[in-house]
Request: fold
Amino acid sequence: MTPGERREALEAVATEVRACTRCRLHAGRTRAVPGEGSADTEVVLVGEGPGFNEDRQGRPFVGAAGAFLTELLSTVGWRREDVFITNVVKCRPPENRDPEPDEIAACAPFLSRQLEVMDPALVVTLGRHSLGTFLPGARIGQVHGTARPPAASAWADGSLVFAMYHPAAALHQGSLRRTLLDDMQRVPGALLDARERRALAAGSADGQAPAPAAPAVPAALDDADAPDDPAVAADPAAPLPPAAGEPGADQLTLFS
Ligand code: SF4
Reply:
């Protein structure tokens, strides 16, 4: 698919989203929020649903949480326009309540098509509802700051899924601001791992030597959120990705 074809395909999805009445959320929306950013990106960020400001403007992450998300991206040298930002549900739940499972299911084909068009190497989930879409059963307190392949039943096949708290969580719980900043520093390393997995898989498909096991991406083992379930804890012996400020981290460009 050419860049122009990708942009057209994403715009076709957005047009359908703006006219969608598949679930009850359409009744209360001012504007649907399909998502925005680069159609050619390697990194897609998936939040939960539009809030008040997003509903008014028809754009994702434009309120206080959006400002923090932009700040998070800037700490690794990325801009909003370098990535694609969208949500699990494209219309605002009333009073910013959590999206219901049937609403998430009704909206899922839109997200699935967006991911199919962009085929990102890395999907960054923002918040537990986004996490649950790609890694059902995973607990955000245990897996944030780590990357792993999506569950077999989910989408984004061939991508890695990197879990983060929702930026709005830091507005309500100040201690999570440091956690989000720390986790963000691991995202460029996760992208490098995702690229490597793809290259190895491509080599394997070409009949070359079998790909070795994918490198683990380490957990953010801060005291407050240290994994306590071995089933979901990342390998603490895995090498750390480049830290921000070191060559290859904040210098990592998308789409190299
Ligand atoms: S949330 Fe999704 S499925 Fe529901 S009306 Fe909006 S676009 Fe349609």
Observations:
- The domain at 3-225 is CATH 3.40.470.10 (Uracil-DNA Glycosylase, subunit E).
- The two ends are 18 Å apart (CA to CA).
- The chain is about 40% helix and 10% strand.
- The first helix runs from residue 3 to 19.
